[in-house]
Design goal:
Elements lengths: L2 E7 L4 H14 L3 E11 L5 E5 L3 H16 L5 H19 L5 H10 L5 E10 L1 H8 L4 E6 L3 H11 L1
Antiparallel strand pairs: 1-4, 1-5, 2-3, 2-4
Helix pairs in contact: 1-5, 2-3, 5-6
């Protein structure tokens, strides 16, 4: 079971900076991320979304490419491409990641110059995220974290 966090920020670079802080925890092995997305809205109101591939999709692509490679003798290039595509679809179905419609909705609601960070976390110490994100000024938009951790995160972001 994974937890979900969506945080909005007033600064355009805050979402990306907060993700870097969370990625540092991931590289230390203290949390495990399943999917992430960062949304920015420029001063003119244009929304850009940087949605990383879910880990289920990544695993599916690798498995599909390997299986496609086994068919390499019969259908060389098509086997690898088709296998990777099929594996990605299977992996995406198994671990669908962050809802794209929700990401778009939050992006549209951002003020000009704002950003948002979306995290799907599949393990680790939630308290560490509170500390890592506490250096940024933001608001919790939505989360599936336990109430006490959500309250601590909300207070840390103020």
């Amino acid at each position: 079971m994974s937890d979900f966090i969506a945080i909005t920020f007033d600064g355009a670079d805050d979402g990306e900076a907060a993700l870097k802080s969370i990625r540092a925890l991931e590289h230390e092995g203290r949390i495990r991320l399943e999917d992430t997305a960062v949304v920015r809205k420029d001063a003119g109101g244009k929304v850009t979304i940087h949605n990383e591939m879910a880990s289920g999709t990544e695993a599916g692509v690798v498995v599909g490419a390997v299986l496609g490679g086994l068919l390499l003798v019969v259908f060389p290039v098509a086997a690898i491409v088709g296998g990777a595509l099929a594996g990605g679809l299977v992996g995406r179905a198994a671990a669908p990641g962050i809802d794209g419609a929700f990401v778009k909705e939050v992006g549209d609601d951002l003020p000009p110059g704002g950003s948002a960070l979306f995290l799907q976390i599949r393990g680790g110490e939630a308290g560490l995220m509170v500390g890592a994100l506490g250096q940024y000024h933001g608001r919790v938009r939505q989360t599936s974290l336990p109430d006490e951790i959500e309250t601590a995160l909300d207070e840390a972001l103020r």
